[in-house]
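Session log. Operator J.P. requested a structure for one protein chain; no other inputs attached. Running the standard single-chain path with token output.
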Amino acid sequence: MHNDSSYRIGGAQFTLNGTHYKLVANEGRNMLHGGLRGFSDVVWKVKKYKNEGGVSTIVFAYHSFDGEDSNLYIFKNILLYKV
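Structure written below.
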């Protein structure tokens, strides 16, 4: 699975528009890729499951909130698998 929050923040802190933010350090003193807990470590909801013509489809959803694990934004994630 791919996470689009791919970044490294030196010292796990930064200042933006006069506001100083301290983040969770997870790579030595730095923050890498969005905090301590990745999308593989959260519980996703099954939004839809279908099995038609020998093809199984499942849709998962996860809504992360602003401030979750030092993230400064909200994610509404959808993951679709077809087998």
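Operator note: Residues 8-35+43-82 form one domain.
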